[in-house]
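I hope you will forgive my troubling you with a question about protein structure. The matter concerns a single protein, recorded as an amino acid sequence and a row of backbone structure tokens. Please examine both parts with care and let me know of anything in them that strikes you as inconsistent. Here, with my thanks, is the record as I have it:
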Amino acid sequence: MASIEQAASLTEEAVCAICLDFFTEPVTLDCGHNFCRSCITQSWEIKEINSCPECREVFPERNLRVNRVLANLAEEARKLKLDSKEKESKPRCEEHQRELKLFCETDKKLLCEVCVIKQEHRDHHFVRIKDAVDIYKGQLKSSLDSLTEKKSAALQMELNQKRKISQVREQASSLQTHITSEFAKMHQILNEMVQRLLRDLEEEEKRIVQTMEKNHREIQENLKSIEENLSKLQKQMEETDFVTFLRGEVSRKRRISDGGLMLSVADGTLTIGKFKGPLQYTVWRNMLSFIKPVPASLTLDPNTANNRLIVSGEQTSVKAEKRRHTTSDSFKRFDPQPFVLGSEGFTSGRHYWEVEVGEKTLCKVGVARESVKRKGSIDLKPESGYWMFWPFSKSDFDTFTSPSRVKHNPIEKQLKIGVFLDYEGGQVSFYNADTMSHLHTFTHTFTERLFPIFGLECKVSEKSSAMLTICGIKGIDRSIP
């Protein structure tokens, strides 16, 4: 096999001086120089003269002789050059200068035939480089497919996260508008009350001051008359003619008599009790008729009460006892769960009510669909139509959510619970009614009538009855549609 130096020498001899590439159909001119047939033909056509590009000799005729020996030489040189490039491109062992043909799977190294027989690679597992490439490309393909799937999942997660961020921002914007609107209404009501009170004060001040100013003007006129009479009397006192002095006696008595008519000072006092009293409390009481919703004075439906529950006569409180009472059974009544529904159901609007429970009372509050299961075992989950809250101790509380009951952060105590229902907004929220701090919120799309629901039972260790009372502001029972 020819060496690289031989290939370089043949390459020089087999290259056309015009195209600088291996000869293609080489021809010899009369001067002995060789060129590719197409190269010399094109050169003569361009120059329009038959001359040798190397020695410049001019020929009267185009005499081109085929040089087969040179054609064979050019072909051989082309092959040698290709072989040299192929050999140069093949990786070789740095230690033995042999072609690397095997891959040691144990050491993860490329080896030549000499490396394989060395002691350090004894008992190692070898495969051909091509086979190793196929094996590891297969592994890479598996990893690539896995990463492609992960990338797709990550892109979907990114899209979902962006969507969630957008939803939160839209929700925050909507809530901001709602908060601003709600307090704007209160500001407007307060401002109207302040303006009305200031207007009443201004009118009362004007009425009283007008009366006093009128009396003041009358006093000034009377004072002026007295001063005029006083001046005349002083002149009479200075009269030296006795006859003239006595003649003026009659008119003098009349002036003295007129000067004695004095007016009293008119009294005027603002109604301080109206304008300076418990103003904030007065305004708060007046605002109750505008605030929506305020704690509703709900009543309980005795026909739905479990037979261990006793609803009060006014139907605003219920107590639980350990013994069962004789009641008429109906499809409305809960059995055996100790529940009772409110008398009024809701299909629209926003509503709020508060429930006060005893310190040792086990209770559940919330809302329920009208069609909920009332007999036997009941699954207290939103999917079953129950949105419930359970303050089972002073320090903790639960909510019933899918797939199971969820325990929330501790609270200091919970003896009064506020329940808020926004039917169109799909919201049921629970609050510590003493501080109005938020405890938990359910969201759902409501499609049927919802009723307030109350659950109550006695602890086994307690002897007294458990009590639950609906708290409302007397005379105020409103909701917003």
Residues 228 and 359 are 86 Å apart (CA to CA). Residues 475-481 have pLDDT under 50 and may be disordered. The longest helix spans residues 129-237. The chain is about 40% helix and 20% strand.
